[in-house]
Amino acid sequence: MPAGLNRALLTVAGAAIAVVLAIAICSVAIVVAGGSPLDALVAFFDFGNSARAESNSVATFLNRAVPLFIAGLAVAVGFRMNLFNIGVEGQYRIAAICAAFVGSTFTAPAPIQIAVIILVAAAVGGLYALIPAVMKVTRGVNEVISTIMLNYIAIALSAYLLREPFAGERAEGQLNTTTPPLPDSGMFPDLNFVFEWFGMLPPTRNGGLWGFLLVAVVLGVVIWVVLERTRFGFNVKASGLNGPAAQASGVNPKKMIIAAMVLSGGIAGLIGLPEILGDRGAYTNNFTAGLGFLGIAVALLGRNKPVGIAFAALLFAFLDRAQGALQFADIPASVVTIIQGAIVLLVVVANEVTNRIALRIEERRAAQQLGRNTPVEVAA
Amino acid sequence: GGGGGGTTASEEPTGGTSSAAGTGSLKVGLAFDVGGRGDKSFNDAAYTGLERAKTELGAEIKELSPSADGSNRGDLLRQLADAGYNPIIGVGFAYAEDVKKTAEEYPDLQFAVVDSASNAPNVTGLLFAEEQGSYLAGVAAATKSESGHVGFVGGVESDLIKKFEAGFVAGVKSVKSDAKIDVTYLTPDGDFSGFKAPDKGKVAAEKMYQDGADIVYHASGDSGLGVFQAAAAAGKKAIGVDSDQRQTVKETDLQSVIMTSMLKRVDVGVFEFIKAFQGGAKGGTNVTYDLKVDGVGLSTTGGEIDDIKDKLDAAKKDIVDGKITVPAKP
Amino acid sequence: MTRVRKYHLALIGVAALIVVVSLVRVLTGFDDLTSSGTVGAALILAVPIALAGLGGLWAERAGVVNIGLEGMMVLGTWFAGWAGYQWGPWAALAAGLIGGALGGLLHAIATVTFGVDHIISGVAINLLGPGITRFLSEVLYKEGTPAAEAGAGITSSPAVSGDTPTISLPLLSSGPDLLGKLESTHWFLVADVAGVLRGLTHQMNLLVVLAVLLLPLTFFVLWHTAFGLRLRSAGENPWAAESLGVNVYRIKYVAVVLSGAFAGLGGVFLVFVSDKYVEGQTQGRGFIGLAAMIFGNWRPGGLAAGSALFGYANGLQLRSAQTVTTFFLFGAVLLLAYLVLQVHRLTAPDRPAELAAPGVRQYVVMAGAVVGAAVLFWLWLVIDELPNDFVFITPHVLTLLVLLIASQRLRMPKADGVSYRRGEQH
Amino acid sequence: MSADTLATARPAVELEGITKRFPGVVANHDIRITVQPGTVHAIVGENGAGKSTLMKILYGMQKPDEGTIKVNGTEVSFRTPSDAIDVGIGMVHQHFMLADNFTVLENIVLGAEPKRAGRLDTASARRRITELAATHGLRVDPDKLVEDLGVGDRQRVEILKVLYRGARILILDEPTAVLVPQEVDELFQNLRELKAEGLTVIFISHKLDEVLGIADAITVIRRGTTVASVDPREVTARQLAELMVGSELPTPETRESTVTDTVALQVSHLTVEADGHHPAPKGVAAGEYAARLRDEGKRLLLDDVSFQVRKGEILGIAGVEGNGQSELIEAIMGIRAAHGLVELDGSDISSWSTLRRREAGIGYIPEDRHRQGLLLEASLWENRVLGHQTRKPAHKGVWVDRKASKADTQRIIDAYDVRTPGVDTMALALSGGNQQKLIVGREMSGEPVFLIAAHPTRGVDVGAQAAIWDHLRDARAAGLAVLLISADLDELIGLSDTLQVIYRGRLVAGLDPREITPEQLGGYMTGAIAGNEET
Ligand SMILES: Nc1ncnc2c1ncn2[C@@H]1O[C@H](COP(=O)(O)OP(=O)(O)OP(=O)(O)O)[C@@H](O)[C@H]1O
Ligand SMILES: Nc1ncnc2c1ncn2[C@@H]1O[C@H](COP(=O)(O)OP(=O)(O)OP(=O)(O)O)[C@@H](O)[C@H]1O
Ligand SMILES: [Mg+2]
Ligand SMILES: [Mg+2]
């Protein structure tokens, strides 16, 4: 269909223009800051000057993308139904600490150990998301507020758990609080062998390329299948596009809210695992926070679709990775955040604009067509 | 634990370093804690030490700040290592794990971590006996207090800050065993916003002053500003932390309420570490900056505690001599 | 017609609340529950939330969801700090307003002109706010700049030069301080009322007064002026407004820019309290403000109640953590009151039909209330001090509880969050 | 300064060569209309002919692509409605343009607010509104919330809005669509008064007898173009209709009865409370409970409604909109909680979910297809799946059977003559009539036992209308039981085997469609004629 193709081309062009614009805006900022945008550009692609540095940088980049992708997925499941799960942040934190603790209490063969940890994380995340879902369904509490509040509660709760019931041993002179370490069987095998395929050194960075990447890919595919091919996915889509119509078609909106929220929370529960199973081997008090909020941006940038989210996560991770390189080039690392925000905003603006242009083109085409065969033979 | 303290970097200048020979061989990398350089506090103190190494030891220096979520601490260390920096310093106990792992990956390089113990053969732990300094702050507060009522405001309820509390409480009790001590933390562990909440610091301290406390000690980063403001409003006193806040705080009305500050010489720690490295020292041990080596202490700017100097010196001597062991946990 | 009744009801409610609180205070001896200090602290903590909430109110009444308040507030703090150290508090006020308004303008351009989803734009602004301010700090406050000389660092500005005036009510809250004297008697009810009044009038920063006045002002403008009617119509039915010649785009622009300015003002307030800009000092208040606004049913009065609740719980927790245990007692008392009411309703001769033969549901609810009251009472008896972690979340838990009870009465503007385009009727 | 200048005055409105295109549609094409001042000028045309678009252009809401507008002889160019308001044009829209959460007063003054010292001067506004209402016989309470008003009241508010602005030229876009005959009479009385005061009225309607009754001049629009200007004294309704459609008119007419004795759907004592559903206490019969609620003075949206529909029967429900039809449908569909009993084929389905009811064979053509019937931003085949997620051919285990769904969608497209490029087209790209045909096809494909058809031909053009009627009749002949709800009284009378009138949530009259005229029916619907109340 030429119209469809037109539209696709326009969309891509729009996105490209948006990215270029975002870069331009940041370049201006960099110039104002007395730096050189070219240096900045080089820094973004500067993956280090030794083979070892390069593989480490690539691993860092991909490792960053993994939790961002999962976070994006978690947010997207809710957003597709117009459920604003702002609580991914709290859900993954609670899930991570519980999973890390449960995983440290027993030792089993690796597949079982890891499976149990993943299940616990998903279950806890899902349960924590169940709270706002039930509040919404039974009492009509707006999920935006309840999840925001629950984020704060999650922070305090996990701090308490980490210090009291779930606290692990720590070495003399260590101030980090941590859960007990996972047994070796709890650590997810890395994917460093992949680097050899490309003739690169395996990354030496701790944890190398996290094996959880595979889980993320599988998760992405599963979520895509669930959302695009199953009855449940259809119901999610229908509820998101038109709630009353979905209800009239026999979809129970309350059940859908609970199901989508729990699924979203369950996925959210996995966000912290790449870091725990790939690198730290425990939940510590400098566990990476804020991925839930970044997940919102990633999901929106990826238009709530798994493939789009993957691209968005890679883009964000690519930008984040350059934080160090930029500082080596004496450029304020905060340009990364500015670029991220600008891209999110400009890409959606570009989307709207291209949509409208496409419409106008169609309009003109229709006018031409209809202009030829005059609508009615004027009588009277 | 303060005792063992090992080898403090020796005083004698090793040959030709301060002459700024600039051999170029000394490349020091340093990674800040969240907040980064320019925080006028902890990170900046570390930077002061680094800069001193540049001027006095002719070091080439590079310092990096982590992202806002701190997720790239380890990567910063590795990037410094890959860029040929040696030694490399991580500022803040949050670096403990990452320094350990990076040190294992780069066994030929030397690392140091501030506020955390050594956990690998090529890692030097730069520890500070905050509890000892806080003890002195407690002694000063109790001695100066007329009401027998003092307070402590902690930014985040983490173990590090609890060391401050423990020392302070012990110090106060050593002077007035029946003294009333209010303790408030601004945020729970894991929510580091407690170091950036002057308004909350102000509310917490205000309450203490209203209840009759006349001196409040804070270990709450930027939130301490609120404590000073509350002190100024109540016409009472406060004790600063980390650096000599009577000098670093620029507001004149606040300066005068800062009776003293508990100094934590991270700059000294960093500088001495670099110097020792240049002298060939290897890691694997901790260096504790305690009262004995003046790694912690009280500032005297303003002269408000000059009159109780004897008492403070006595307390210090008791600690140094091991007569008093200051608890590190409340 | 119902306004008078509502107003009276609110007064009675407040009075009843004071009596209950006073009772609890006398029973427990926690004088801080109603001390002027607590009320003053609550006010300080509530004002930035209320200002952010007002920002949300203005935007959402005009039909634009503003989840970007946090980012706008951050802009407000930075600009206030930057202008404040150079040119004093009034410049800080102006710059903070402008900073926030710029954030609002960005949101307006994206959502109104380009029809971008409101949530997306808000999320982007929340990313941009901290990013831009950090960048500006890195450029303008770095070592060697004049600002750095004046005490700036990457994470904070120099102190705002000069002070904002504070005022007290003469006679009552200053000088002879009659209220203060009354408060220190600790008499039942008298001391409580005195404490609350004194807390509200003693040494108030002028900006607090200004901020508090903005609430009735907002009510007046939105509900009693032509402009307000048009603004609200943009949030209820922009197509109707358009068809009557109202320029909906312009209204929305004004509302969203003002919304940003309000958030920015909240930032200015934080800067004034701290005397300077400190990175991260907004601490999610933009979000809390949004929550307070929804809590308050998109109305200034409700918003004030929501922010006050938050500020009060927060202030109490910071001032005397152990007082928080009295909330258990509160809860128990409230549940008992609910039980009494319920029993009264069920046994009343003119009870409505659906209560004539109470079903399992009613009994379960009542049994739940009894158990809840007992558990809460028991908790109050046995727990002297909660772990700090739980004390910290008191405001958040309270908000959730209140929402659970009150949520079903909320009504948001009908066209809130809807993307409106001129000439395209929905 | 008014009526006597009729002959000499310049035309109130002159439209010259107006053309307006939308994506895929030319809504207006070279339209020419002249409206004399002090007259009621009717514009007629079938659905989608472009009437509303033309009026929106005249009111400044849309810009014409070509053509000129003259008002009172001067050429004007409107950028926004306020430009049109300034030259004295006011418009009452086809769909209500009211903010539900505002009072009548607020809705009326919006955009033309009286001010005093910066305040909204409600006192003077109230005075002015009461005065206007009194002089024109438009009774409303200025302080009521619009959401509490019925359609007739809302219509009056709309007209007051226009009068309040001092408009001299009134555009009324299908003001009578939602009104019953008695209310229409009242409205026309008002219009005549306005005319007498020298105002010009442009009036749009589908109801040709109405048009002939009120208009001084008539313009006919067909497919976006003016096809005729006629004098109402010289044409019959039939001629006018043929001008509009360009062909013979279809009529809804049910031939021989196919009603059987088997009851398909039985509804007993259905009751819905206005302020939320509270479960009835155990052991109290629904009818009794409804009586008790009524005694307490509770507002009831549905009040003890009982009826049955037999296989092969079409039961028509007549009623002014807002008298409980929507609640009735939703209660039967299980979307809204209600007291009372619903039985399908003899089994009690009152406690079943919507899904289970649909699976048991209830089909549903919703009253608002955009709200309840379609996913506008999804493809046609996905819309085919909607409502059939758990049934063949749409599903295969937990999966959506895409292939079978697409094939069946194609079947519907062919069988129901849905004009579309293909099954992957988005639903929003279809015209209203084609959307409706898709819905009808979908609901019929589940082989329903019982079908709810709410306004099945609303906003659908004549051809599609006839097709939909045919499908309904065929299904009825095959034994389908149908509950028909419609505002089109001809449709109701023509299709139904039995008629019930709903008024204020109660069934007030059971009527025989063969013996009733639309006027009588209107009487029952407005409560003017008391019902015979049979159950
Ligand atoms: N905003 C729009 N965008 C695209 N097409 C439109 C728009 N408004 C109207 N149309 C199309 O223009 C044509 C004329 O529509 P219009 O609403 O003017 O018809 P109408 O004569 O008022 O019909 P009805 O009797 O149903 O009210 C229709 O095909 C309609 O689908
Ligand atoms: N605002 C709009 N934007 C784009 N297209 C529109 C718009 N309004 C109507 N259309 C298009 O006009 C056509 C029919 O719409 P319209 O609403 O006039 O149908 P209708 O026959 O009047 O049915 P309904 O009674 O449901 O309005 C469709 O193709 C639709 O896509
Ligand atoms: Mg139409
Ligand atoms: Mg129309």
From TrEMBL, chain A:
The keyword Secreted does not apply. InterPro entries: ABC_transp_permease (IPR001851). Keywords: Cell membrane, Membrane, Transmembrane, Transmembrane helix. Signal peptide: none annotated. The chain crosses the membrane at residues 57-79, 91-108, 114-131, 143-162, 207-227, 257-277, 283-301, 308-325, 331-350. It is found in: Cell membrane. It is a multi-pass membrane protein. Pfam families: BPD_transp_2 (PF02653). The keyword Transmembrane applies. Its main location: membrane. This is ABC transporter permease.
TrEMBL record, chain C:
It is a multi-pass membrane protein. InterPro entries: ABC_transp_permease. It holds the Pfam family BPD_transp_2. This is ABC transporter permease. The chain crosses the membrane at residues 7-27, 39-57, 64-85, 91-116, 206-231, 251-274, 286-312, 324-343, 363-383, 389-406. It is found in: Cell membrane. It comes from the Bacteria. The keyword Disulfide bond does not apply. Keywords: Cell membrane, Membrane, Transmembrane, Transmembrane helix.
From TrEMBL, chain D:
GO terms for molecular function: ATP binding. InterPro entries: AAA+_ATPase (IPR003593), ABC_carbohydrate_import_ATPase (IPR050107), ABC_transporter-like_ATP-bd (IPR003439), ABC_transporter-like_CS (IPR017871), P-loop_NTPase (IPR027417). Keywords: ATP-binding, Nucleotide-binding, Repeat, Transport. It holds the Pfam family ABC_tran. Residues 13-248, 284-529 form the ABC transporter domain. PROSITE patterns: ABC_TRANSPORTER_1 (PS00211), ABC_TRANSPORTER_2 (PS50893). It comes from the Bacteria. This is ABC transporter ATP-binding protein.
